[in-house]
Amino acid sequence: MASSDSSAQGPHDMALILDQSVSLTLGTDSLLIEGMTGCIRPIASRDSPNRQITALVAKQTVVVVGCSSLVNPKTTHAISLYNILGAEVTASNLVVAYAEPTAKDDISVTTVQYPIAEKEKKAVDSWVQKLLEQAYGKALIGKRLKILVNPFGGKGTAASLYQTYAAPVFAAAKCQVDVEHTTHRGHAIDIAENLDIDAYDAVVCCSGDGLPYEVFNGLGKRPDAHKALTQTAITLLPCGSGNGLTWNSFGTGSVSIAALGIVKGLRTPLDLVSISQKDSRTLSFLSQSFGIVAECDLATENIRWMGAQRFTYGFLVRLMRQTIWPCDIAVKVEIGDKAAIKEHYAAWSTRPEEPDSDSKRLEAAALSPGLPELKYGGVTDDLPQDWDTIPGETMGNFYAGNMAIMSKDTNMFPATLPNDGLMDVVTIDGRVSRGTAITMMNEIPSGRFFDMPELILRKASAFRLTPHQREGYISIDGERVPFEAFQAEVHQGLGTILTKSGRLYEAEGPR
Ligand SMILES: Nc1ncnc2c1ncn2[C@@H]1O[C@H](COP(=O)(O)OP(=O)(O)OP(=O)(O)O)[C@@H](O)[C@H]1O
Fold this sequence. Notes:
Layout: E1 15-18, E2 22-26, E3 30-37, E4 39-42, H1 53-59, E5 60-64, E6 72-80, E7 84-89, E8 93-103, E9 106-115, H2 121-136, E10 144-149, H3 158-172, E11 176-181, H4 187-193, E12 202-207, H5 210-220, H6 225-231, E13 233-238, H7 244-250, H8 255-263, E14 266-277, E15 280-284, E16 287-291, H9 292-298, H10 309-321, E17 327-335, H11 338-350, H12 357-367, E18 388-390, E19 395-401, E20 405-407, E21 410-411, E22 423-429, H13 434-442, E23 456-467, E24 474-476, E25 479-481, E26 486-499
Parallel strand pairs: 5-9, 10-11, 10-12, 12-13
Antiparallel strand pairs: 1-2, 2-3, 3-6, 4-5, 7-8, 8-9, 14-15, 14-26, 16-19, 16-24, 17-18, 17-23, 19-22, 20-21, 22-23, 23-26, 24-25
Helix pairs in contact: 1-3, 3-8, 4-5, 6-12, 9-10
Bound molecules: adenosine-5'-triphosphate.
Adenosine-5'-triphosphate binds at residues 150-154, 182-187, 207-211, 214, 240-242, 478.
Domain DAGKc: 140-279
GO molecular function: ATP binding; lipid kinase activity
Keywords: ATP-binding, Kinase, Nucleotide-binding, Transferase
């Protein structure tokens, strides 16, 4: 018999007793199953199209409890509520689907089923509602996802990574998916520009950071850009080499764990940066670089097969040449020293959440739906008087970040915050010794590079960079743009992503 007392306070009001032999108790962080465990066998998802079944079988198991011959009585099983994907009462069973960690970097969908009698259904139904409320918290249940797969992203395996590792997670969480493969460069811009934004909660890119860049820019081209960028969350299943968006949002490079992150992801406002050049205005969500990092990003396409290692290799090769990239730089500095930047980070990351902030953002966007005007004009306008001029004759590395992590183990901008209206501008002189440059690179994973005096850091709301040379590389979110003057200006919270915390990146802040 099922019993669940929802009126009483305390831990017991969350307990569901089935057939006097199994109890399922909702704790603060986990679902505790006490009683029987039973046979485990793989199944394919009911909702999945036939062509997906082979892949799903490999990633999905079901635990059937209640078949007495196989029962091993009095066992306890705790499932983290974060890992609960779905729960439902079918014709004769309670079915709970969850993500079971199978390796350090992987989860697979597992289902436990308990036979229930007709008279138990009402109580079980209301317990299922409580389970889902606790398991999802503020996250939207059953998100409607527009999935964009770049068949050529990263090592060219995005389609199979999606089918094998993400599709089963979305199916178990009852997400609605609409999958489309990009067929050419720029295709995601067109898709986003013409997207029915009321039909989807998020656009999921199965790619590297190049596709999200296109989706932000496609939404940015619409007459209702502000509304579209506020309403539609953009997120990434890591199928490229850097995958910065996934690392910052969910702290993983694993497709299955990122899929779980998307299912449980909280809408999070994201600062976007307008990049103006002579004839264009684009939006950047991740980073802008000039100098050694831009070259490592863009001049190493020929060694793409190396995966993430190509950045390190490119860096070392260029370091040996000890090149400088002369330029003029002017910055609208908001916080100019590292100690004050650390204070700003600590204050922002601990401040209480504003109630209803998401609905207020949506209302504001509906009132002024177009892309915000540029506060500081374009790159050919006069420089505002209150911008600081920074010497750039011997520039080695100009690197501005809107997110913390650029790729695995590269928490390059630990003090960035998703929505403080500021970007972190790093400058490093090209004359620093090779030894110092290598130490700096080696100390990125430990975070110690942040305090090295050779790394100059400013929090800024805008900057302008004018290269002196005629040829070279400028990288905006890893994409090459013309080698000419560009101006960057932050729009606070213009974009939307999904994150695990709803307020911070999954990166260790500055020490
Ligand atoms: N079918 C396609 N054929 C060719 N190019 C495509 C296709 N679909 C998308 N692209 C282009 O691939 C580019 C990069 O894709 P993606 O987002 O996977 O990043 P990436 O550069 O491969 O990532 P990483 O650098 O991290 O490996 C984008 O500029 C996009 O326009």
